[in-house]
Amino acid sequence: MDFNTIIRDLKNKVYHPIYLLYGEEEYFIDQISDYIEDHVLDESEKEFNQSVLYGLDTEVNALIAEAKRYPMMASHNVVIVKEAQKLKGIYELESYLKQHSPTTILVLCYKHGKVDGRKNFVKLAKKMGVSFESKRLYDNQVPSWIQTYVKDQKAKIDPKATNLLLEFLGTDLSKISNELDKLLINLKEGEEINAQMIEQNIGISKDYNVFELNNALGIKDIMKANRIINYFGQNEKSHAIPATLPMMYRFFSQLLLFHHFSPADDKTLASKMGVNPFFLKDYKVAAKNYSIKKIAKIMAYMREADLQSKGVMGGGVNTHDIYKELVFKILH
Length: 332
What we know:
Layout: H1 3-11, E1 18-23, H2 26-39, H3 43-49, E2 50-54, H4 60-67, E3 77-82, H5 94-98, E4 104-111, H6 120-128, E5 130-134, H7 142-152, E6 156-157, H8 159-169, H9 173-185, E7 192-193, H10 195-202, H11 210-218, H12 222-234, H13 241-261, H14 266-273, H15 280-289, H16 292-309, H17 319-331
Parallel strand pairs: 1-4, 1-5, 2-3, 3-4, 6-7
Helix pairs in contact: 1-2, 7-8, 7-9, 8-10, 11-12, 11-13, 12-17, 13-14, 13-15, 13-16, 16-17
């Protein structure tokens, strides 16, 4: 099952005896387990019929005993195990699944890794319940996720604000959703989340960030590019080279795709590049300034800058000088 199907079933009160939730992305695991914790039982039923346990503090035999309890004055007995990856002997739960309680909903939140699909316990869980792998989204999938998240809250967010969140928070959906929730609380009806709101409420500069740097490089605005890298050099902690280079590399990689798929229509180009159509105008300008051959050289320059930042090439060079050299090579 995918995430949306699981949530839809839960909202329709279609429950399963076991939910094996695992994977690298915490957000989807938490969303499913939190929904079960909050909505399956009402408040009066939870005291005697809902248990929230932690893997490190739980033994398998005690968990099985908890799962085999019959509900008291309720339709279900809900047992949620958080941090289930720390539960010793988790695969011994096979014996419980073979003789499980039909009134129990057992939720296992196994984070930061995969379960062993060869184990009978996992095979049984897939057969009789929900087995869901929560995968991290790729960088190019996060903007669309942000747009959908905000849309589901009956609000809007502009593409620049979306990109600012991606730069500052990366692909951590839990952090992104928390920050969006703060913004949405104060959002007036009909108002759109924009870059200025991001700057004021989250502390991300709308003028000095990697997306503005890419834009300056794309149009070959030497003064603006140098102003931004000067800011980066003075704020190394929040603009470290290992965090900035992947975003720059992505921009020029997408520019390569633009060259490759041109002269396709805008909708096709945006889809192939994995970008919002809003930004195609920037790529059209950049494509005139950078040939495929030049882009290949730029990617090599970025690899050199990455090695320099790690002390592999030209050790001892400070962050600001690495930025200055890289930007000079790109623009000239």
